[in-house]
Amino acid sequence: MSATLDQLTDWVRRFAAEVHEHRDELTRLDAAIGDADHGSNLDRGMTAVVAALDAEPQPSAAALFKKVGMTLVSTVGGASGPLYGTLFLRVATSAGEVTELDGPAFAKALRAGLEGVVARGKAEAGDKTMYDALSPAVDALDAALADGDPLAEALRAAAAAAAAGRDATIPLVARKGRASYLGERSAGHQDPGATSVTMLVAAAADALA
Amino acid sequence: MSATLDQLTDWVRRFAAEVHEHRDELTRLDAAIGDADHGSNLDRGMTAVVAALDAEPQPSAAALFKKVGMTLVSTVGGASGPLYGTLFLRVATSAGEVTELDGPAFAKALRAGLEGVVARGKAEAGDKTMYDALSPAVDALDAALADGDPLAEALRAAAAAAAAGRDATIPLVARKGRASYLGERSAGHQDPGATSVTMLVAAAADALA
Amino acid sequence: MKKLINDPADVVAEALRGMDAAHPELRVDHANRIVYRADAPVQGKVGLISGGGSGHEPMHGGFVGPGMLDAACAGEVFTSPVPDQMVEATKNVDGGAGVLHIVKNYTGDVMNFEMAAELAAAETGVDVLSVVTDDDVAVQDSLYTAGRRGVGVTVLLEKIVGAAADEGRDLAAVAAVARKVNGQGRSMGMALTSCTVPAAGQPTFDLPDDQMEIGIGIHGEPGRRRVPVAPAREIAAMLVEPVLADLDFTGPDGVICFVNGMGGTPLLELYLMYNEVAALLDKAGVRIARSLVGPYITSLEMAGCSVTLLRCDDELIRLWDAPVRTPGLRWGA
Amino acid sequence: MKKLINDPADVVAEALRGMDAAHPELRVDHANRIVYRADAPVQGKVGLISGGGSGHEPMHGGFVGPGMLDAACAGEVFTSPVPDQMVEATKNVDGGAGVLHIVKNYTGDVMNFEMAAELAAAETGVDVLSVVTDDDVAVQDSLYTAGRRGVGVTVLLEKIVGAAADEGRDLAAVAAVARKVNGQGRSMGMALTSCTVPAAGQPTFDLPDDQMEIGIGIHGEPGRRRVPVAPAREIAAMLVEPVLADLDFTGPDGVICFVNGMGGTPLLELYLMYNEVAALLDKAGVRIARSLVGPYITSLEMAGCSVTLLRCDDELIRLWDAPVRTPGLRWGA
Lengths: 209, 209, 333, 333
Ligand SMILES: Nc1ncnc2c1ncn2[C@@H]1O[C@H](COP(=O)(O)OP(=O)(O)O)[C@@H](O)[C@H]1O
Ligand SMILES: Nc1ncnc2c1ncn2[C@@H]1O[C@H](COP(=O)(O)OP(=O)(O)O)[C@@H](O)[C@H]1O
Ligand SMILES: [Mg+2]
Ligand SMILES: [Mg+2]
Ligand SMILES: [Mg+2]
Ligand SMILES: [Mg+2]
Hints:
The complex is a heterotetramer, with 2 copies of chain A and 2 copies of chain C.
Chain A: E1 2-4, H1 5-21, H2 23-33, H3 38-55, H4 61-75, H5 80-95, E2 100-102, H6 103-121, H7 131-146, H8 151-168, H9 192-207
Antiparallel strand pairs in A: 1-2
Helix pairs in contact in A: 1-3, 1-9, 2-3, 2-9, 3-4, 4-5, 5-6, 6-7, 7-8, 7-9, 8-9
Chain C: H1 11-22, E1 26-29, E2 34-37, E3 47-54, E4 71-77, H2 83-93, E5 99-104, H3 107-123, E6 128-133, H4 153-166, H5 171-183, E7 185-191, E8 211-214, E9 225-228, H6 232-246, E10 255-261, H7 267-283, E11 288-294, E12 304-311, H8 314-321, E13 324-325, E14 330-331
Parallel strand pairs in C: 3-4, 3-5, 5-6, 10-11
Antiparallel strand pairs in C: 1-2, 2-4, 7-8, 7-12, 8-9, 10-12, 13-14
The complex binds adenosine-5'-diphosphate (ADP) (2 copies) and magnesium ion (MG) (4 copies).
């Protein structure tokens, strides 16, 4: 089973809808250990993305994700703008000028996105960032596909891994991003970026089902 | 019966003690229709007065009240500094270089004080100021003495008249002082200056009893 | 009460010590609580003094310096200073040309400055004139009341009159400029929150989260009326309309438009308010010749703003543009 | 939420319109949210740009003008601007001598400016160097974390580096001055209250009436620790001690001592704090060469303050004293 361009577009739109719906929750999480803007940042960006896709449907996976990445870079700002922007730009490059992605190609693209996040933000495991949800998700996706699971099922496993990674950020003491300024006081709070990136993976599982 | 210099000094000290005890109440009244400083203003001034009298007992009624008036003018500021200051300075002039004041002399001095307040502040009856408590008190004092009441009893009548005048400020719409800025909203609140001047008359009734 | 203070009784004295330490170009008489420009008196120049309760900073101490005031007398928070301070300052800023007292119209300020002028006349040979500012249109002007409050115009007046004194005009002429500025300026203010007088220890008034006060002064007092909070656009109209209704500002030389912060309002919001005010003036045919945006005449940490318009002519614009060098206002020097 | 705003989404755009209208000496590109000095680019001079989230006014837009920045990019409230803005500003302030990016050390700001520098290199021929400020001693400096925040030193740096660029130094030399200033400056801040991001609609954190936050940044975030409210004297010690512990400030040329208000603290309290800070420095043998007191790098309406010390030498003092003409800082011009 492959993901069609429509499904990939649907992934982006579902993520936008999730972010919009949980905008205040994301901001509240960011208020606790950051500066109370993660929800409005990402919602502003994904609203712009949806508007761009409405205005001009994209002809290929590369074009689609490049548009998403560029729009996020140009409209979000803060830490999540360059991080989510780079993620999608790397996904675009990895996906290429195709209109379908099979499981391995999708997984490769998502890993490229993860590597983009690391290249940009230098986060490591346990730093209490979006990395801590995205990285286990990409690993779970690879593992499930290697086990021969179809993409849809593999993405469900990835989404579960992301959620587990997200929850595991709660006890962590942040070492990257704004939460790091809080030192020990950052422990006991769920990372907002890990929360939004879990929505991203869950949206993929829904859209590519 | 005459008021001795000791009794007159005691009047001033009792007034200081009353103001100090009711400092927060006076400030609260001023917060409602003014700027929340009448209690601290008058307490600062009367504390300085007591310190001055402690340092140097005064040889005559004129010296005593002049010291009180000058100290108030120099330490209080705001509206109540010049008003109470002028009141005591006029009392001093009227009282003269004596060490005792009989009833008529005391009443004359207090009326001179009232006239000083009017000369300085131009308040009229019903403007919702200290005038509205002090003026009926002075009238009551004159009337009681004219009836042949002894000074102590006449001062009790004056204190009662002051209290009645103070209470009668509650429904008034202010036309002088800060409360006038509130217009109709000043109605329903007791005037702070009328409240403190009622303490002044009551202290006289107690000291000269 | 949350404040960066020690004992509430020491707030004014300690803040003056900080001002003294931070500004070598000023000289502070701590016993009398007077801020002087370091080179006072300036020979041959009319001396300008003002003063008032503390809690309105930078006014007035922050407006002492070349091109503005020669001295400022600081009272307790929201309490007029006392005559002794004003007499002392009058003596020390007289450079032979007399001294102008700039007084905001509050019963306390007016009476204390009046007593000071009487004492100065009796004790010193210094010529003294006084001007009273009363620009607040929130308060109805009437012979039978304390009249209008002196608010935002005081800032513009101290700057402009400072420049007039610098030009070497005599006392009567400087006083005439002052009266002209007061006559051509109007203000209106509003508050989103109350403020807390340190000695009182709690907010002067309670204001629910969905209410604001329109027609406030600068002493943390409640305003003329309480209304539901509204967008900046509507608030701007509530301030600008009564100002425009009170005086014609459509002259060819335009106005100085001053959007003032009450102390607790961020500059971001003041610029946003300025945008709304400018749009309303444009619609009313009022030209903005000069602008001032910021917290210049404040009420401690009160959130809110006021709008002041001053009708200009060539002379006032020239005096406004002249160099000024004070902690609170500075240009050209 | 009580603010002088219309729609929370429009706050930054509308405030920039007000800034534009109030300051004819600035030019604002509203589409890109860039504040330029009206005469940019200045031929032959190194161009200086900075930028960051809004809500810190007057920083950075209020520091645009002769002697300081050539342009400032405004992000959403507390959100770094985007690379497109920085690239556009870089192009428009280059007078042939290259452009310096002044970046506060926050993950978002650093990444966005990094992308901008990459794009500028690819799309334009402009030489770009970047300096990052990271002066906040509340945060432990470490290779394994995001490092220290850039706070108060940024203000002093923009002034001093502006003067260095005005002297005609080349890009490398200007960047070297910037790095020197950052290396010699340290800051520490505290909050009495939280602040409310307009889009969030409620205070970022709850702080009981008897508690304060020590070691805050400038984004309304909670600090390093929460302690009972204390007198100004003790608060000053909590801020000054870690600053002095981090760097030796006892040089013969003294320091610039900067007591900054977070936006909702009255000037009266800032001067009082300055008095306490000056006393502590005196005891520690630190000489104050220059002072700055006021709200210059703020967190919306947060009540609180920060203390910044910058170790000086003749060069830095000369550059500090040089003329500057911006809405937020102005002297000698
Ligand atoms: N260096 C980093 N690497 C990966 N993710 C990061 C890094 N720094 C921050 N993040 C993520 O960004 C999120 C915050 O995003 P956001 O609030 O939009 O930006 P800002 O911190 O600039 O306000 C954090 O919750 C964290 O997951
Ligand atoms: N013109 C006046 N004549 C008489 N009393 C006045 C006048 N103006 C104000 N007062 C009195 O002064 C009181 C307020 O004093 P205070 O709060 O100490 O001064 P301020 O109004 O300057 O803060 C009022 O309650 C009123 O009784
Ligand atoms: Mg954030
Ligand atoms: Mg009062
Ligand atoms: Mg008062
Ligand atoms: Mg942010």
